[in-house]
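Please annotate the following for my students:
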Amino acid sequence: MDIESRPYTAFYVEGRGYFWYLRMPFGMTGAPASFAYVTGMHMHDLLTAQIIELFVDDGGAAADTFDEMMHKLRTVFTRVRERNLSLSADKSSFFMTEAVFAGARVGPQGVLPDLSKLTAVVDWAQPHDALNLVSFLGLTGHFRDLVKDYARLEAPLRDLLREVQLPPQSSKSVYRRVMEGHKLADRWARPHTEAFLRLKAALTAEPVLRGPRWDGTPFTVTSDGCKDGFAAVLTQKFEYSLANGKRVMKSHPIAFASKRTSPTEEKYKPFLLEFAALKFGLDKFADIIWGFPVIVETDCQALRDVLLSDGLNATHARWRDGILAYHIIDVRHLPGKLNVVADGLSRKGEGLPKEDGDGSTWTVNEDWEASHGLVNDIMTLTVEMRTQHQPLLDRFKGEPLFTDVLEALIGQQDKHTRLRDKRRAQHRSSEYLIDDGKLWRLRGAALPGVDIGSSASRAKRHAPWHTNNISMSRARFLDHGRHQGVPAM
């Protein structure tokens, strides 16, 4: 970040002072636009020549022949090297007939929806009771105006529901008990299976399902959470012209997501279940919606109020900040009786045992760092820190204890190191700092090292939770003394 912009990112840490970011942090509204400006500045002629296409931090190139593809790759790699940019080898794929790019499948057939975003519907098991069937038909019925002959397709399944004997003016609890008690195993026949599969096929294929558009039209994320599961659906409005010339907008599904709750999530309070469901949905659709306007719909009024509140405790603030890192332009309350899509998906596992792969073995984390790191951040590969401190690394080569501490201090831990070992090294590094080319232990003497210059070392003090993205305020650390802010040196 430019020096004049850094003070605007400053924040206060109790007992440590003020910090600011040296690089663009995750979650800033202008981050995607800034990144697009930088890549556009360096790659603009390759874009106009149709050698490469860019989408935020993703790039793609396509060709009809091997030689043409090799020419494009050489051109792109040469430009990246000349402009000091970097590419992620782990996230790169080459010579694919079809690939997922910007949240959609791109191949010989054009732009199609990403199949991995449809498993929430495709994997829906045959309904075992009337309540589960109601959830499924609520999902499909929401898009009935997009499905040709919908009434005919769902008729066999609707007939099953007509067999349920409900008491007049029954309460919600009575309704659920009766519907759950109406088992379908003995009544389910081949026509029901065919109707069930046809509705799933209709919902997960064109013209109902559409690929995303990035023309400024907002995406809508509708979520729902209950003790049995989380669910979210991503939709976008498309314009149609009627026979009379009138133009109307219709919402089409783009992607679906669901998971069973983990043992930890089952204990959440209702509004926190909704919090987690929304976070789950946004993270699931991140490769499509990141940096673009998003409308959030929820049937939990409390969640809407919490997202707009500043008076939250630390835990709830983390949930909110993880959500508001996306470009959310509106939060709308959707009455529960209208939230049939997400509600149906979240309850599709009711009454069924949990299985491997249904999401019940992992928990949605409130911190964006925990699951995504800085995957959407503006980052650059640099050897500056390692080169600067290489003499110290060489000095302690062969001494794993100090090598781990040094790597934690300079933010250069091996990505293949186990998370548990990383955290242990980060905790240990809290007792040390680098200054004047030496490794200092707080409340102790300097460990022998090599003098590699002090200005850069003093400019960056690396705490265990703190990488080279954050710098201690100069007013706190530099201008007020050599070791100001370091206790008992």
